[in-house]
């Protein structure tokens, strides 16, 4: 096996290992973020309450 071929194989293995390591670290960080105790509370309120929602729904269907 030539020196170039060996180098190419080693470099390819290094790139694959680096990408796998990065992917695993990102997944672990994402899981830690999901499992953390911090969260946001928000209240939502419609600006206009329709008087008869069924009529509005039927008009949208036409």
What's this model, at a glance?
Keywords: Membrane, Transmembrane, Transmembrane helix. The protein is an all-alpha fold and 62 residues long.
End-to-end distance:
73 Å
Count of helical stretches: 2
**For the report, how would you describe the main beta sheet?**
none
Percent helix: 55-70%
Rounded Rg: 28 Å
How large a portion of the residues is in β-strands, by DSSP E? Answer: under 5%
Helix-and-strand structural type: mainly alpha
Mean pLDDT: 78
Indicate the low-confidence ranges by residue numbers: none
Please provide the ordered H/E string of secondary-structure elements: HH
Tell me the count of domains: 1
Could you give the count of β-strands?
0
What coarse outline follows from CA principal-axis ratios?
elongated
Features:
mainly alpha, 62 residues, single chain, 2 helices
Write structural notes for this entry.
The protein is an all-alpha fold. Helix content is 68%, strand content 0%. The protein has one domain (3-61). The model has no long low-confidence stretch (mean pLDDT 78). The chain starts with a helix and ends with a helix. Keywords: Membrane, Transmembrane, Transmembrane helix. The chain crosses the membrane at residues 7-24.
What is the secondary structure topology, with strand pairs?
Blueprint: H1 3-35, H2 53-61
